[in-house]
Amino acid sequence: MRMSHAQMYERVLASDASCNGRFFLGVLTTGIYCLPSCRARKPKAENIRFFPSCQTAREAGLRACKKCHPDDFERGADPVLETVEALVAEVRAEPRKFPDARAIVRRSGFGATRVFELFRLHYHTTPADLLAEARVAAARRMLLDGKRSGSLLDVAEAAGFESQSAFHEHFRRLNGLTPSAYRELGADDDATAARGFTVTLPAGYPLALLWRTLGRDPNGVTERLEGGVFRAAIRIGADGAPALLTMRFEDGGRVRASCSRGPAHGAHAVVARVLGLSQDAAAFARLARRLGFARLVKGREGLRLVQTVSAFDGLAWAIIGQQINLPFAFQLRQRLALHAGEPAGDGLVALPAPATVAALAPEALCALKFSRQKADYLINAARLIVSGRLDLEGLRAMSATRVERILAAVRGLGPWSVNYLMMRSLGFADCVPYGDTGLTSGLQLLMKLEQRPGADATRRLMTVFSPHRSLATAHLWQMKQSIS
Hints:
This is DNA-3-methyladenine glycosylase II. The structure is a single chain. This protein is 51% helix and 10% strand. It has 484 residues and is α+β, with helices and mostly antiparallel strands. The chain has four domains: 5-74, DNA Methylphosphotriester Repair Domain (3-Layer(aba) Sandwich); 79-180, Homeodomain-like (Arc Repressor Mutant, subunit A, Orthogonal Bundle), CATH 1.10.10.60; 194-278, DNA-3-methyladenine glycosylase AlkA, N-terminal domain (TATA-Binding Protein), CATH 3.30.310.20; 311-482, Hypothetical protein, domain 2 (Endonuclease III, domain 1). The two termini are 37 Å apart.
């Protein structure tokens, strides 16, 4: 859809990366043209002109910005992004080489402010937080390789932690387990998964809000919450066979989890995602209060965004849930599971695997009351996964910028679907599902607006919550139930 000058300027003020390539911004006072997402100082509206291509901007006598590199973007190259991705890959492969965030800055070749900006834009985090997560991830790998990892002190040192106490603190915060308890998950996986493990929730974790989300489909056939026990039909392990995951919520902020089959560490990864353990709820609560929005987080400071049990579950939900009401979306999901899924135990059915969905004819889904368009979108996405052209689980390790581009190229995934999948299934921290009515209703209540904001206003209003816009969305979804 063609945008007006005012609409394009709104996108520029919001540094909207989704508009990169749709138009280019020319700053007449400096003689430079940029991408809409450029983080340089925003020019005044009267000093800008918009161009459909870099060529037309050059013909007008402008030169390319050296900060956002619009020419590289237009021809498909993105050297700055590639440099950041290579740096992050190096940090994750050998976190011990980087004693602190300053070492990451030195290795990058950029200035400190620029590095923080790039990490925030492309990975939705800071260099220090990414380094801490990389150290924990390295420790997890070593702990599962019990024969070669040595003592816990050896693991801590090999992962780059300065002390064993720092190791325990970071590990427990992101995993809900001590390093020694996690190590036990690697021994005799199937038996350990069936025997179970106990995850400790962070202090102040709002269980009531978690249960509200887990139990929102009372007639669900893939998952069920009853009396403080959550059961879900999932797929983990190399064979992807269905398994029954059970999470029992006990006193003292503990969750006892078990899985009927598959590797125990795989079951733990699902539990950690469902509980949102890696999300920095405290940081968002501090930001909200600093912005003067204490009522947004009051009574639910520890709220996390519940993650789907797998990326494909999230993809299926994003396609099924487009432009229909929630009860009907639940019905379509149930019908898909009952038609093509597999029993996992206790009367629950796992959603069909991508290969099963890829083999379906659109007519089979239409008979379940899917629209022809939804049926085509879902089957096409499954076929991309089966062919290897879309590695959904592999997206978790990529930059948010790269993931957004990959998902936006999948037929049937628009801005709402892409951002929903990134925040609800892939764990990215700074996403906004534009067009979501629950989000805009929450903003209307929080900001005391006369009407729900449109897309441009939503972008502008949500900017203040960066880099925690995913958690901001989760809180705004709760606004109708907490603000009269």
